[in-house]
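STRUCTURE:
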């Protein structure tokens, strides 16, 4: 089995690439961002550890996890973000190791993550890294339309993905750059070509 990491900046088209892989027959697609959000609710001790470390509550009045409260603490505090990641990443890796057992007979599985190349804890993770890229203005427009937010808000979020804004900053970690700056049909053909390469090598 080959673990294929699919990454890229905001609005690059990572999820669309994963969906196209799924249409080609890839059954195992692990979305790290979605899995982390699920862990906050399904692993109570993880959330408790985070709150204790941050000395702040990340819950609504009824006791449910609040992503917005956590975001307020870590958005502009690099140390707080690092603290949270040091707590979360071991749980995420354990979750992935459990998840992947269901796909032992597959030739490839995908691990989708927006920021994995920036995280030292994931250095060397996966067998093949695909970086989905597009011009920054195009990515900004896509993300604004997708999230129904002003482009200015997207631009602010993009500032926190400095390394991800250009694949050259992390080029040594990347096996394949998939440029998503054309039509849907062009993207479809690029994914199909990459899929065949991964399956046959």
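SEQUENCE:
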């Amino acid at each position: 089995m080959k673990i294929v990491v699919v990454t890229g900046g905001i609005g690059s088209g990572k999820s669309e690439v994963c969906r196209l892989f799924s249409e080609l027959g890839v059954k195992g697609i692990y979305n790290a961002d979605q899995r982390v959000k699920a862990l906050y609710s399904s692993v109570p001790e993880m959330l408790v550890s985070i709150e204790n470390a941050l000395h702040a509550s990340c819950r609504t009045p009824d006791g449910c996890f609040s992503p917005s409260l956590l975001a307020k603490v870590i958005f502009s505090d690099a140390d707080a973000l690092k603290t949270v990641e040091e707590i979360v990443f071991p749980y995420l890796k354990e979750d992935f190791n459990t998840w992947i057992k269901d796909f032992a007979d597959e030739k490839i599985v995908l691990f989708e993550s927006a920021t994995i190349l920036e995280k030292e804890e994931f250095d060397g993770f996966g067998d093949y890294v695909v970086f989905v890229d597009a011009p920054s203005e195009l990515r900004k427009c896509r993300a604004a339309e997708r999230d129904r937010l002003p482009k200015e808000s997207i631009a602010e979020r993009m500032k926190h993905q400095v390394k991800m804004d250009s694949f050259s900053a992390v080029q040594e970690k990347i096996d394949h750059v998939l440029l998503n700056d054309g039509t849907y049909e062009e993207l479809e053909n690029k994914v199909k070509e990459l899929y065949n390469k991964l399956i046959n090598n």
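REMARK: The two ends are 11 Å apart (CA to CA).
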